[in-house]
Amino acid sequence: MNPAAAVPATEVPLPATGAWREGDPPGRRQWYGHAQPLELEAGGVLPGARLAFETWGRLAPDRSNAVLVLHALTGDSHVAGAAGPGHPTAGWWGALVGPGRALDTDRWFVVAPNVLGGCQGSTGPASRRPGGKAWGSAFPRLTQRDQVRAEVGLADALGIGRWALVIGGSMGGMRALEWAVGEPRRVGALLLLACPAAAGAEQIAWASAQLHAIRADPHWRGGDYHDAGPGRGPHTGLGIARRIAHVTYRSAGELQSRFGHEAQEGEHPWRGGRYRVESYLDHQAAKLVRRFDAASYVALVEAMNTHDIGRGRGGTRAALGRVRARTVVAGVDSDHLYPLVQQAELAAGIPSADGVRVVRSPYGHDGFLLETEQVGGLVRELLAGAPDQPGRRTGVEPA
What we know:
nine-stranded mixed beta sheet
């Protein structure tokens, strides 16, 4: 088997993009359209920008019960719910959202947008631009601040002047932080998970390898592949990027304990077969290319690389000092992509943070998604309005 292949050969080739596109089933999505062209931090404007979003629960008459959930790189608005028409996968944080759960939808109105530049209903490279063609290579460069400005417009359209809680991990944590610094009066409580104050050199380096993998795919065509026929999208490049990323998302200990040096069943690595860990990465790549868009991946990774909360604000310390929300900062003890030292910088600079909470997990960076019981305890603590003794109710230890 070709280890670079994103998916095995099938009778029906995959579409050029795994993006949601006009005419596909809407699922639970709603849409917000930005009334004016969105002015972008790097220059230029984005006309006709819109965000897909989903909601759970009911907005209170005084609009005091709204919670904003912000997804990571390959997430989308489908935080909770089954897979089905319009939603290729089940909700990515379903254990946290619903009646009686940490984000109890009998009490809280939960809003989750698909990020601007994404590929599951929001305006991104796979979307049609004025004139009818896909944006492709003409899609403008975005920053995290552009994405948050679009989300501010969504909040305004929903009549939400202040979020009871903004929560995000990884890329979502970067945007949650931008909300709290850029719109401090609109964030009541803040939960930052496994994210930094600014993208670091090693993180940008890992991202660079992923971007090169996508752009080296002959089907990339400079980003203008969206109207190519089935089987003619940059699936191989996107699959390699996913493999690289996934190694950074998991810990060395977990990979070793799960796969070790074992060959995949029925295969021999000396004779063209794979090791079990290679098969696992192939599986992760195959899943992503079926539901994601390579150009969105590029746009979002580049936006993550721009993340620097102190840019134009007098530096990191000055920017973090603007946060007014009751804040919990948490990191994963086995995370080598966004290590605890980066969360320590956030906690030291945010006036209301009481140190770093440590999520104990063998899973590495993905622990912020998988350790829902520990994360749920932090959510409950913030929504209760008064923190308990560190780690007592949440089960998450202070650093």
